Fold:
Amino acid sequence: AQSVTQLDSHVSVSEGTPVLLRCNYSSSYSPSLFWYVQHPNKGLQLLLKYTSAATLVKGINGFEAEFKKSETSFHLTKPSAHMSDAAEYFCVVGGGSYIPTFGRGTSLIVHP
Amino acid sequence: DAGVIQSPRHEVTEMGQEVTLRCKPISGHNSLFWYRQTMMRGLELLIYFNNNVPIDDSGMPEDRFSAKMPNASFSTLKIQPSEPRDSAVYFCASSSRVSGANVLTFGAGSRLTVL
Structure:
């Protein structure tokens, strides 16, 4: 069994400030973990993935995430937010099952 | 590669009409997923195919919904008869164990409005 919890439904930041989107997971297997981004009226796009290699994963557009097994977390961060980062972000757990489990999503709002 | 291709991008229909959504997965991908996204319920998995065979359809809301994958390059999701509560964006996604387990590539979605 596997599940994922995104701790915040909305996160609001000012442009140029750091971004933190939180994700906790549970899995009966060694998990694969992913972050996807969905811009308004678009499909979902893969940001980054963790598949049991380095625990700090770098993705596109300056995002990165760190796998912390002891905390069962996979938080997404970015040092400096840009207006174009405003979107919906989904944390996903996979691995033992072919069927990925999606979180409810976190809406990132970026203020000028 | 053109990615996952969905059609139509937008569909407006009246209650009771049949709706057919289409998906062409990425060539070589052997898994295909249909999702529905609404504001109320978020992203829901409807059905999952592996090697053209339906593996898990527990997310299909009711008998009005059906999905087929007659070959590796085409899938349909049909709603008959459609109801206003079916209004949503329907996404198709495909993946391959070769490209990375469970890494999904999504289509742009089909926005359905049932009046």
Notes: The two ends of chain A are 41 Å apart (CA to CA).
